[in-house]
Amino acid sequence: MEKSVLRSGFFEVPFVSQPVGRVPQRRNARSNRARILATARQELGRNPDITLEELARASGVVRRTLFGHFPGRAALLDALAEEAAEALQATATVGAGVTEPADRALAQFTLALWPVGDQYRMLLALARRDLGMDRVAGILEPARVRATAILEQGQRDGVFHTHLPAPVLSAGLEAMTVALLEEVNTGTLEDDGTRAAVSTLIAAGVPEKRARIVVDEVAAAEG
After folding, report:
1. Residues 143, 7: Cα–Cα separation, whole Å
2. d(CA 194, CA 96)
3. Between 127 and 166, whose confidence is greater?
4. Closest listed residue to residue 85, CA positions, set 45, 116, 118, 106
5. CA separation (Å) from 200 to 1, 3, 28, 87, 180?
6. Confidence of residue 28 (pLDDT cuts 50, 70, 90)
7. 218 partner at 20 to 30 Å CA-CA among 11, 25, 32, 183?
8. Structure confidence by residue, pLDDT tens digits, 202-214
């Protein structure tokens, strides 16, 4: 830092100049990192074997910039996994504690969860090979806990069937949702979340006609 003196009337005020460019550099670094991750979400969905060099070109940054943020493939996937975990955690807390019918609560939760799952569905293709199933299970844990709580409420209220314990039913619904996302990944299914929400309610024991009505009402209310 460079010190100088500002003179005003009879007073001399020390003035310390600020380093030039640091704030813009930090802002630019954050922007580059966000752009790389956003591009990775898209490109890994198309090609799970994309190289970091190819990803750098797709992101519009030089190779050195990408490697400055992510020194290897494992670091990049770990950052994406952290993003997914944070997004799922945030989604799982929305609406928690709000009292309403369990079928409506499950529809709301599924519709809120679907965009997050859709955004990070490329991680499903990388789960077994790169991340490991334990890491994926940890990412999904907040959603599983919230779904189990809703199912327990619905079973107490007679809204959902009770032939399976709520945690087991929650695990089954989670597996179905993951399977639906994988079908979206392969291009065999198109869904904005409503089909998944209806399927989830039906699997939980809600009659199909009622399930469709509830999902349509929730989707309309959510805009």
Report:
1. 62
2. 21
3. 166
4. 116
5. 61, 66, 42, 21, 11
6. confident
7. 183
8. 999 999 999 999 9
Q: Is 215 buried (19+), middle (13-18) or exposed (0-12) by CB count in 10 A?
A: buried
Both structure tokens of 8: 């005003």
Q: How many CB atoms lie within 10 A of CB 71?
A: 11
CA distance 28 to 33: 9
What is the β-pairing status of strands 11-16 and 3-8? antiparallel
pLDDT of residue 82: 87
User: Hey, how many other C-beta atoms are within 10 angstroms of the C-beta on 181?
Assistant: 20
pLDDT of 25 reads: 52
Q: What is the pTM of this model?
A: 0.75
pLDDT at 1 over 70: no
Q: What is the mean pLDDT of residues 74-101?
A: 82
In tens, the pLDDT along 136-174 reads 788 888 889 999 999 999 999 999 999 999 999 999 998
What spatial distance separates the first Cα and last Cα of the chain, rounded to whole Å?
A: 53
